[in-house]
Amino acid sequence: xxxxxxxxxxxxxxxxxxxxxxxxxxxxxxxxxxxxxxxxxxxxxxxxxxxxxxxxxxxxxxxxxxxxxxxxxxxxxxxxxxxxxxxxxxxxxxxxxxxxxxxxxxxxxxxxxxxxxxxxxxxxxxxxxxxxxxxxxxxxxxxxxxxxxxxxxxxxxxxxxxxxxxxxxxxxxxxxxxxxxxxxxxxxxxxxxxxxxxxxxxxxxxxxxxxxxxxxxxxxxxxxxxxxxxxxxxxxxxxxxxxxxxxxxxxxxxxxxxxxxxxxxxxxxxxxxxxxxxxxxxxxxxxxxxxxxxxxxxxxxxxxxxxxxxxxxxx
Amino acid sequence: xxxxxxxxxxxxxxxxxxxxxxxxxxxxxxxxxxxxxxxxxxxxxxxxxxxxxxxxxxxxxxxxxxxxxxxxxxxxxxxxxxxxxxxxxxxxxxxxxxxxxxxxxxxxxxxxxxxxxxxxxxxxxxxxxxxxxxxxxxxxxxxxxxxxxxxxxxxxxxxxxxxxxxxxxxxxxxxxxxxxxxxxxxxxxxxxxxxxxxxxxxxxxxxxxxxxxxxxxxxxxxxxxxxx
Lengths: 315, 228
Fold this sequence. Notes:
heterodimer; A: alpha/beta; Rossmann fold; Alpha-Beta Plaits; 4-stranded antiparallel sheet; 11 helices; 32% helix; B: 228 residues; mainly alpha; 10 helices; 78% helix
């Protein structure tokens, strides 16, 4: 069953299309990883899908309802984990969750039970009576997730829930997401971190410049670039490398620079490594060479010509 | 009434708020009377300034909700914006009304010369509504909580000065006295004079109605700009 869908959705900010005729479907029981660099339109997509932001064109449907997708009945089944840590700093963790449970109409015993469950789920039971003001960044992020869980949403939308936290909290969050799926919650998970998507998503949607560039399972997406290989050169003087000359070598499809690294995408088995290496060595000292198996990063690079990480914080 | 209940709880959760909400009004009760001015004891004029401060402190809670993304989260929940706003304003109004009651009742018990305590209470309540609506309109145009508070503090002092709460209006030049008429603080000071000089009841009603009109105008201004 399709829980949420967007058909030809357009959202403009002035002359810039933040969502450029987007089509998207989220089916029951899946974790959809929405992958894209900062500024790709992920947050706008979430805001449109949840009704926070009105769209200029197109149709949005939630739980099979396209006439009034943002009705109270549909909102009861929807949960949002915001990118901002939207928790009450002055209330205890338990009180904050009681507030969110209360606005979804939960009463007394049921409310208490759900709050305790949510705290347990995110591993904060021991901190129930503490104010988040004193929590670490990771604990606040976990509480932020718990706030969206007390009403047991059927569809949970998570907007970059692991931004700026330690690896331990990040792992806890990723495990929680997988547990939620096992319990039957459908999840739309946005991130610009491809490892997270690779780890948890049953389907990946790659978004760039407001458009869905590609979608499929992680394996399907990697298959699209399996005929290619990625060679990474660590060099002393990356700016001295004549990228056009490297690009002109037979079999090479893309060359990009990131810090001291030159990434070359070439047709698999083209036998051009010697030629590439000789061009690179002519213009800079080579500190290391590494050949990678294709991953989502390569998929993204092949499809958009950009690297996910290079653009972090760009918008 | 979940939002109402938690708004009350949040209003008292902060130490600075707690001082503003409890200690400041009680201190007002015990300030002495002046010679000839102000028309009531100093504390009963300065309580107008306390009301303005309390109103902005309370309204900042809503601003925090907007800045921190809580409002975004609520807009995905089955809660209407006007229900959120209404329950917040109701909670703040309850706090301000209680404060006014404490100040008037406390003054009466402490033997302050309040002339017409009920009229004074009505004046405080009307002024509280106007102050709350002004604070709402004010925070709706700001994105930074600190900037909103700092600018508003300066504005409060200026408005209290020009309105005749801190100093008698008669000492100001004619032009400033004319400008003062547009300030809610002027009508508050007028209300105090009216009560102290035993003006007809209709005069109190006119002043309270003017303050309520201010409340209505600022409420419309502050609530039409949704805080998302």
